[in-house]
Design brief:
InterPro entries: UstYa-like. Pathway: Mycotoxin biosynthesis. The chain is of the alpha+beta class and 231 residues long. A three-stranded antiparallel beta sheet has the order 3-2-7. A two-stranded antiparallel sheet has the order 1-6. A hairpin with a 7-residue loop joins β4 and β5. About 9% of the residues have low confidence. The structure holds 2-acetamido-2-deoxy-beta-D-glucopyranose. 2-acetamido-2-deoxy-beta-D-glucopyranose (NAG) binds next to β1 and α6.
Length: 231
């Protein structure tokens, strides 16, 4: 009798255990299902946003990857792009800015600029410039304007003074919009130097597109029409 009773209790406990276990498994499956469908939804939205962006189709989207990059922004720091005009400086800027126009297909044209009368290239492709070079060109124009006595021979500065001013003004306003568009939310901290004003530490790390990859790609897709039509 006591043995029988033990066996019976054992079976009841096993049954209860099985019930609890099954319930736990079901609960887990339900939870995982919820988790997965949430994850999928996020992923779908993320990948959809690439394609349904108002500027939906970027040929360079997968070409220029993001990575951490430390800005070298010290007030007296040395850079090939800094300093008064010299041949070395001009070459550096010219190499940076003067990149060839490319040819892109109708899909890219339609998503970026569907209303304009496009300047057609070859094989149903259209001439285009990657924006960053136009923006860098604008920065270069401002730089040259500061040293305009030295750069009198530059085409832009041979225009009537009012036009030159308009061009520089256009460039400043374009770059304002570029900066606001990118809305850098990085933070700048300060070094305390006793009684004086703290010093801003401006050489911080940012997530940046790899610029070499952009330039390499653009040169690999050279339309052979030259650098962009100046704006
Ligand atoms: C950028 O891409 C080039 C290849 O074009 C690579 O050599 C370089 O290491 C990359 N730079 C960074 C910071 O990832």
């Amino acid at each position: 009798m006591p043995i029988n009773l033990q066996v019976r209790w054992g079976r009841i406990l096993l049954l209860i255990n099985l019930c609890l276990f099954s319930f736990a498994v079901l609960l887990n499956m339900w939870a995982l299902r919820g988790w997965n469908s949430f994850g999928n939804k996020e992923l779908l939205q993320a990948s959809n946003s690439h394609h349904r962006d108002p500027l939906g189709y970027y040929p360079l989207l997968d070409v220029a990857t993001y990575g951490p990059m430390r800005f070298d922004a010290e007030l007296r720091g040395k850079s090939i792009f800094k300093g008064p005009p010299s041949e070395l400086l001009d070459n550096a800027w010219s190499k940076l800015v003067n990149q060839p126009m490319i040819l892109v297909d109708n899909e890219a044209l339609q998503s970026f600029d569907p209303t304009s009368k496009p300047s057609k290239g070859v094989d149903g492709h259209y001439y285009a410039t990657v924006e960053v070079y136009h923006q860098l060109h604008c920065l270069d124009i401002i730089r040259k304007f500061i040293w305009r006595n030295h750069y009198q021979h530059v085409d832009t500065f041979m225009d009537p003074p009012q036009m030159v001013w308009e061009h520089v003004d256009h460039c400043i306003d374009l770059l304002r919009q570029v900066l606001m568009c990118n809305g850098d939310i990085g933070l700048i901290f300060y070094t305390d130097v006793g009684k004086e004003q703290p010093i801003a530490r401006v050489s911080t790390t940012h997530m940046c597109r790899n610029f070499s990859q952009i330039t390499e790609w653009v040169n690999g897709h050279d339309s052979e029409l030259g650098v962009f039509a100046e704006v």
